[in-house]
Design goal:
By secondary structure, the protein is an alpha/beta fold. Helix content is 27%, strand content 26%. The chain is globular, with a radius of gyration of 20 Å. The relative contact order is 0.16.
Length: 331
């Protein structure tokens, strides 16, 4: 089998290798992967910033899609030929996350999907929505499920603030609009804002032109938005807290602008704001997402699809933020 490995931390430590073919054991399924998609988590993992104690070598990438190639003894959920996606946290079937879920995530600490095949437990897979290609389906396990989890409780007539035009943000925009919510989208690029409007954003704002974008979003919603999909982290959290209404939710997802900040916690206390960390989601959440995607015929926004040979260079360039939506690798 072919795979990319993180042999040592730093992008220079990425190497393409040949490994022995995998075989499923009892209760396991071998998936011939057709595509993998990249997340910022993969950048942090390659740099050694996500978990400096991660055992190496490691096959990166949490997100993939493919076809069942073989099943082990006792497998009942899947048959050869089924189109499937591995779930992010292999042991997280339903309910709240736990330590076991953290220890079972693909792309670190477990080998991930930047390879031609993978073996997982039969419970660690979901079926691909029929209308999606493998390349589209590979965008779902982290970005799609994260956006679904971030929008918990959002319904028709609600207002949502979405930051940027990365994979999670555009999924959140699409899913929120499918629910009948109104969406306020921010970006530093007018061209990307235009893409957001084409996807249904009701209001857009270039945050470089208006540093107080949180207050602008709050005024647009009336008394603040119901939900903020917070992907920036430390550098944007203060404005997100200014944007959300009393009793609203800030779904804290990413750390694109840093992990440490100084802010007045009284804003959270006095307004009863719920700041909720989002750690992707369970298999049950993934299955619910797929039902919604199928019902609305949604398709992930893919910036480009690259060859397996281009995977390392594409991951290396990802922090530049030139893409809109997802970056996908043919495996």
């Amino acid at each position: 089998m072919q795979a990319w490995e993180i042999a040592r931390f730093g992008f220079e430590g990425l190497r393409r290798v040949e490994r022995a073919p995998l075989s499923p054991g009892p209760g396991q399924v071998k998936v011939a992967l057709r595509a993998a998609s990249l997340n910022y988590r993969d950048v942090l993992m390659a740099r050694g910033h996500y978990n400096p104690r991660q055992a190496l070598p490691l096959v990166p990438c949490s997100d993939g899609a493919g076809v069942v190639a073989a099943v082990g003894e006792g497998v009942e959920r899947w048959q050869v030929g089924d189109r499937v996606c591995p779930i992010f946290a292999q042991s997280w079937i339903d309910g709240p996350p736990d330590k076991a879920a953290q220890r079972s995530t693909l792309g670190g600490p477990l080998d991930g999907c930047l390879a031609s095949e993978i073996v997982v437990e039969e419970a660690g897979l979901v079926a691909i929505p029929p209308h999606l290609s493998f390349q589209e389906a590979a965008c779902l396990p982290c970005a799609g499920v994260t956006a679904w989890s971030a929008l918990e409780g959002v319904e028709a007539g609600d207002t949502v603030l979405v930051q940027g035009t990365g994979g999670v943000s555009l999924f959140a925009l699409q899913l929120a609009k499918a629910r009948g919510a109104r969406v306020f989208l921010t970006s530093s690029s007018d061209a990307k804002l235009e893409r957001g409007r084409a996807l249904g954003a009701d209001e857009t704002l270039n945050y470089r032109d208006e540093p107080r974008w949180g207050s602008v979003a709050a005024d647009w919603a009336g008394e603040g938005v119901d939900c903020v999909v917070e992907v920036g982290g430390a550098g944007t959290l203060d404005q997100s807290l200014r944007a959300v209404r009393m009793g609203g939710t800030v779904a804290l997802i990413g750390v694109l602008s840093g992990v440490e900040t100084s802010l007045a916690v009284t804003r959270i206390l006095m307004a009863g704001i719920r700041v909720q960390g989002v750690f992707v989601g369970s298999r049950a959440a993934f299955e619910a997402l797929n039902q919604a995607v199928a019902a609305a015929s949604l398709r992930p926004v893919i910036d480009r699809v690259v060859s397996f040979d281009e995977a390392a260079d594409t991951l290396r360039a990802m922090p530049e933020g030139r893409h809109v939506g997802k970056l996908v690798v043919r495996t």
